[in-house]
């Protein structure tokens, strides 16, 4: 492990440092002798993992099991500490499509609703995987399995459309050794099954970040890591829509944490994808190892956040390893404190974004022909109480029009999607503008080039979505702080 891994990046100002500077500035302006002797308040370090991660624009999540939602000790900790939720099993294939083309979102919605009702966002897990396939899917092969996979992705993503922060589209597709693909019924449908899954997913829900998720890809020197890296590089070069890579980070004696994890995260991010730590647990829960992992994420701007795979040790899929941040009695372990301290030492993010940041997916929002669903499942109405899509009437400039809708909201923030539609002629380039009236600020945007000036927002097309055929549409999305709003948006095309 890196000897200096506990040291926050020295060139940036810490949250506490920033607060001290602001206070010193305020005192200086006052220029009153008596206040100069006033004590500067102690740093108001955040006291929960979610709040501490939010200071640097990141999230801190946990896996949630629907079956434990009746346990108040569990939900109290989960609600207090975490602001991102991954359903541990409830959105997997066997849970969501137990019989072919009969979708069931009962358990998935339980976890989703608990999360959203408590102001948390949700990572979807997982759409295409060799594991936890229902019996009917296990027995399929060839083109029948391929179309069942596509149909499954469409069915599940339609139900949760606009509500999921990021989806683990494909899970664990690489072999444990050698750097190649894992043999599975999905792999035997053809090597292109992964990109077909991603193209299908992009078309099904353009607002979700699309992740490839796997374990044992944290160590930069391992062949499996390089295999996945090469796949992502290839996808980016060919425009296959991938936005993020999930590093499960199940560390144990056979797959120990190595300080080159930071190199891995940086290297993947340099390909133009976000990186996320998606299922973290550490055998024995060394406080130092947990701090090192946290600092690895904090050192990489495109590391969006971290998720631990369970709340208390007793909730873990490998509870005998006591790998989590809370013991079986719900007490904070030393690893909890080391993670919290590392998060609190991270630099804060500026609240005024000026340019489209990191998320922008590389893919065209239009589906590839191979991704069109063979069956079009009808999604049951979603149960989210806090999502209230509403659109402003599209002012028609003739060349293009734009519609804004809220696709998710939580206390203090919301996610929106903006659809840009060409008029009766094709357009080549578009600009969408609006003005916030409630002090909202955009923290993250994708599929658009964002610039802001005070409350005025301008979003221009990016390279891959400027050309829109007559009557056709494309879209971009963003996350914002403040109260959800649907201002009047205008669209112009040069
Ligand atoms: O934690 C999950 C456990 O409850 C299930 O029994 C198991 C079945 O496959 O899946 C566990 O979660 C796995 C995750 O979905 C994918 N990465 C590995 C996780 C731990 O096995």
From TrEMBL:
GO terms for biological process: xylan catabolic process. It catalyses: Endohydrolysis of (1->4)-beta-D-xylosidic linkages in xylans. Residues 347-404 are annotated as: Disordered. InterPro entries: CBD2, CBM2/CBM3_carb-bd_dom_sf, CBM2_carb-bd_dom_sf, GH, GH10, GH10_AS, GH10_dom. SUPFAM superfamilies: (Trans)glycosidases (SSF51445), Carbohydrate-binding domain (SSF49384). One of its GO terms (molecular function) is polysaccharide binding. Its EC number is 3.2.1.8. It comes from the Bacteria. Residues 43-342 form the GH10 domain. The active site is at residue 279. Keywords: Carbohydrate metabolism, Glycosidase, Hydrolase, Polysaccharide degradation, Signal, Xylan degradation. Residues 393-494 form the CBM2 domain. Residues 349-390 have a biased composition (Low complexity). It holds the Pfam family Glyco_hydro_10. Belongs to the glycosyl hydrolase 10 (cellulase F) family. This is Beta-xylanase. It comes from Microbispora oryzae. The lineage of its organism: Bacteria, Bacillati, Actinomycetota, Actinomycetes, Streptosporangiales.
């Amino acid at each position: 492990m890196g000897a200096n891994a506990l040291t926050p990046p020295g060139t940036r100002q810490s949250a506490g440092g920033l607060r001290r500077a602001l206070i010193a500035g305020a005192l200086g302006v006052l220029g009153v002798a008596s206040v100069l002797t006033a004590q500067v308040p102690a740093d108001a370090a955040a006291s929960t993992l979610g709040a501490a991660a939010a200071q640097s624009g990141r999230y801190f999540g946990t896996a949630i099991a629907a079956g434990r939602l009746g346990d108040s000790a569990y939900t109290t900790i989960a609600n207090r500490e975490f602001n991102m939720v991954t359903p541990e099993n409830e959105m997997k294939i066997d849970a969501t499509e137990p019989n072919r083309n009969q979708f069931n979102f009962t358990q998935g919605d339980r976890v989703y609703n608990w999360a959203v009702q408590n102001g948390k966002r949700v990572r979807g897990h997982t759409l295409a995987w060799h594991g936890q396939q229902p019996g009917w899917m296990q027995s399929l092969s060839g083109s029948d399995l391929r179309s069942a996979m596509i149909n499954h992705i469409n069915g599940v993503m339609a139900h949760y459309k606009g509500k999921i922060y990021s989806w683990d589209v494909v899970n664990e597709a690489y072999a444990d050794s050698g750097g190649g693909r894992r043999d599975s019924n999905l792999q035997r449908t053809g090597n292109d099954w992964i990109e077909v899954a991603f193209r299908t997913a992009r078309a099904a829900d353009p607002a979700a970040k699309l992740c490839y998720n796997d374990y044992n890809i944290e160590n930069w020197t391992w062949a499996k890591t390089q295999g996945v890296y090469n796949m992502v590089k290839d996808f980016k070069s060919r425009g296959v829509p991938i936005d993020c890579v999930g590093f499960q980070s199940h560390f144990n004696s056979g797959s120990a944490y190595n300080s080159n994890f930071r190199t891995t995260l940086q290297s993947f991010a340099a390909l133009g994808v976000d990186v996320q730590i998606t299922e973290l647990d550490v055998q024995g829960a060394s406080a130092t190892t947990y701090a090192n992992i946290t600092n690895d994420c904090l050192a990489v701007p495109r590391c969006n956040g971290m998720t631990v795979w369970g709340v208390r040790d007793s909730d873990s899929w490998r509870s005998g390893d006591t790998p989590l941040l809370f013991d079986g009695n719900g007490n904070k372990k030393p690893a909890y404190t080391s993670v919290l301290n590392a998060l609190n030492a991270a630099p804060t993010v500026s609240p005024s974004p000026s340019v489209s940041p990191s998320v922008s997916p590389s893919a065209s929002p239009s589906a590839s022909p191979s991704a069109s669903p063979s069956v079009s499942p009808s999604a049951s109405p979603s149960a989210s109480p806090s999502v209230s899509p509403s659109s402003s009437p599209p002012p028609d400039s003739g060349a293009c029009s734009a519609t804004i809708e809220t696709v998710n909201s939580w206390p203090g923030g919301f996610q929106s999607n903006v659809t840009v539609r060409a008029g009766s002629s094709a357009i080549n380039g578009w600009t969408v503008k609006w003005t916030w009236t409630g002090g909202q600020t955009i923290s993250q945007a994708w599929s658009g080039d964002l610039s802001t000036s005070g409350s005025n927002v301008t979003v221009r097309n990016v390279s891959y979505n400027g050309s829109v055929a007559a009557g056709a549409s494309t879209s971009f999305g963003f996350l914002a702080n403040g109260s959800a709003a649907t201002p009047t948006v205008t669209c112009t095309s040069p």
